[in-house]
Amino acid sequence: MTGIKSRFAVAAGGGLLVLLGLSPMAAAVFSVIPSPVLGGVGIVLFGSVAASGVRTLSKVDYTGNNNMIIVASSLAFGLIPVVSTQFWHAFPDWFVTIFDSGISAAAIVSVVLNLFFNVWLPGTPEQPSNLAAAPALRVQTEELRVLKSGGSLDEHSYEHNPTPVEQGTRARPSGPDES
Question: Which has the least CB within 10 A, 36, 106, 168, 171?
């Protein structure tokens, strides 16, 4: 918004705000500001925070991973206290204290799901695939022969035929090194 990208400027501004927050003189000055003015400033402030969050989420890669689940679950948990104010009240008091705030509920859910799906998930390969979400494909006879013989298939194992005889691609009879 302001274009200032210096960490020192942001840290200095934060330190100044902390000092003003501890000052009774500053509290007296801010208490005379009319409520409608504070409401207008709050709308702009929280609108800017929301827009910044949307801009950040637009840069997230949602393909081949569980980031969509993380974002959707976090937003849902954050909206629960807004939509149903009594939703968490059957839970223990410590739990209600934490999850009755949409901000803390969304933050906790997003951090835990991100850790679970992207850090702790056991057996996650270095390059995870989304084969389980892909449409079912028939295994061609030549593909089956290659796989049964202990071979593997990669992008060089297939013919580049724009009109295959059967649905899907067909494995090349010869390996990638043979032409």
Answer: 36
Residues linked to residue 19 through DSSP beta bridges, in sequence order: none
Q: pLDDT of 14-57, one tens digit each?
A: 999 999 999 999 889 888 999 999 999 999 999 998 899 889 88
C-alpha–C-alpha distance, residues 148 and 65, integer Å: 30
Give residue-wise pLDDT tens across range 74-94. Answer: 999 999 998 998 898 899 999
The phi and psi torsions of 171 (rounded to 5 degrees) equal -70, 145
**Residue entry with tokens 């003189």:** 25
Give the length of the chain.
179
Q: Tell the residue number behind the tokens 């799906």, with chain if given.
A: 117
Contact present, 166 and 138 (Cβ < 8 Å) = yes
**Tokens representing 150?**
């202990």
